[in-house]
Amino acid sequence: MTPLSQPFFQHALLAGSLVAAACGLVGYFLVLRAQVFTADALSHVAFTGAMAALAVGFDLRLGLFAATIAIALLFGALGRRARPDDVVIGSVFSWVLGVGAFFVTLYATSRSTADGTAGVSVLFGSIFGISAAHAVTSALLAGVVCLVMLTAARPLLFATVDEAVAAARGVPVRLLGFGFLAVAGASAAEATQAVGSLLLLGLLAAPAGAAIRLTDRPYRALALSTGLAVAEMWVGLFGSYAVPQMPPSFAVMAAATAVYAATFLIRRPVPRIR
Predict the structure, then answer these.
(1) Has residue 204 been placed in a domain?
(2) In a domain, 147, yes or no
(3) How far apart are CA 271 and CA 274, in angstroms?
(4) At 138, which CATH number?
(5) How confident is the model over 168-207, as pLDDT tens digits?
(6) Cα 239–46–261 angle (5° rounding)?
(7) Terminal CA-to-CA distance of the chain, rounded, Å?
(8) 198 vs 178: CA distance, rounded Å
(9) pLDDT score for 24
(10) How many domains does one find in the chain?
(11) In whole angstroms, how far apart are CA 86 and each of 28, 60, 96, 132, 174?
(12) What's the predicted TM-score (pTM) here?
């Protein structure tokens, strides 16, 4: 029996493909804007938000999206021109980890009869366990993220490469910064459901990092980052199906790491100076 004939695999492939595409698009700008630490912080924010929602009896997805988007916007508000620095991120990061520890304890003590595996699913993902309705919802949300990123790609690229000139030309640099952080937060929430909060940084950073190493052309790198993320998701899902002992999140990250490592073996031609 082929994996594509299995309903659970179809759901995982549908949601995973769109989530990976969104992460590839967002991750490219995170790397280009030197905001990878932001993605790292959002991975821990995702866990805290999910555990907070579970502790008070709400759906963990509500906590995921509310926490990641709110904290991402807070990063922007505390930073310069909606571009947070490492001090801001580190300070909020530490506070969020403390809040997360509190909600983990609250969930474990006040809801002992609840699903004991929920925290593990948030940490490591549960893409093979999503329902058809959940898969469609995830795919639609990820599709919206992709559409927003493609629409804003040109002005966002301008504001990223030369912020001062972009502002002088009338580009709403600060508004773009806030919008991008909100989209990054939504992408982090989506990726948490696929590969878990501990590993979502790899899905956001590794494909984009590999694409930037392979080409200097922005739009080609953006497309390559998206394509690599989707391909790595497929490799991970099919690999995990073939080897049931291998978790899908690990398989996806293994593929992403292998591709990024392989880029160091490729020598890019040095342009001739006339």
Answers:
(1) no
(2) yes
(3) 9
(4) 1.10.3470.10
(5) 888 888 888 899 999 998 888 888 877 777 778 888 899 9
(6) 40
(7) 59
(8) 24
(9) 93
(10) 1
(11) 19, 28, 15, 39, 18
(12) 0.86
